[in-house]
């Protein structure tokens, strides 16, 4: 009885290798080359040599955010506060693109704060672009925006 188990085990292993060695009948085609905006083709950096700089510095950026922010009225009525983390890309020409929310408070009121944070970031002035080896590069930045009632 031991030899029969041995033969069946050997046949099973050989057939497994035979099946695994077959070519794929439906090969996956390679992805198409990137098309469109040349800024979108290059992957943005997270830690460049020189970070992008807002005109007037970080302090001025936070002042501009505070001045442009319109607290949603329904959030004021409900005394809803929170912190929204917005991620965006500073392009090689200093413009802002790909604005998105990384984290926001839960619920519909949190979404309202998130939408306001996106609006404010999209309206910021152009940055001095970041660089790597003296060449301007796309850079990912994250900005925390605090919605707090005074």
Would you report the number of β strands?
A: 5
Number of domains: 1
Strand content: 15-25%
Succession of helices and strands: HHHHEEHEEE
**Count of helical stretches:** 5
Terminal CA distance: 85 Å
Largest pleated sheet: 3 strands, antiparallel
Radius of gyration: 27 Å
Helical percentage = 25-40%
Per CATH, the architecture is: 2-Layer Sandwich
* CATH class call: Alpha Beta
Describe this structure in words.
The chain has 150 residues and is α+β, with helices and mostly antiparallel strands. The chain has one domain: Fusion Protein Consisting Of Minor Coat Protein, Glycine Rich Linker, Tola, And A His Tag, Chain: A, Domain 2. The chain contains five helices and five strands; from the N terminus they run H-H-H-H-E-E-H-E-E-E. It has helices at residues 2-20, 38-41, 57-68, 73-77, 107-122; strands at residues 82-90, 96-103, 130-132, 135-137, 139-147.
Give the structure's gist in a few sentences.
This protein is an alpha+beta fold.
Structural topology:
Elements: H1 2-20, H2 38-41, H3 57-68, H4 73-77, E1 82-90, E2 96-103, H5 107-122, E3 130-132, E4 135-137, E5 139-147
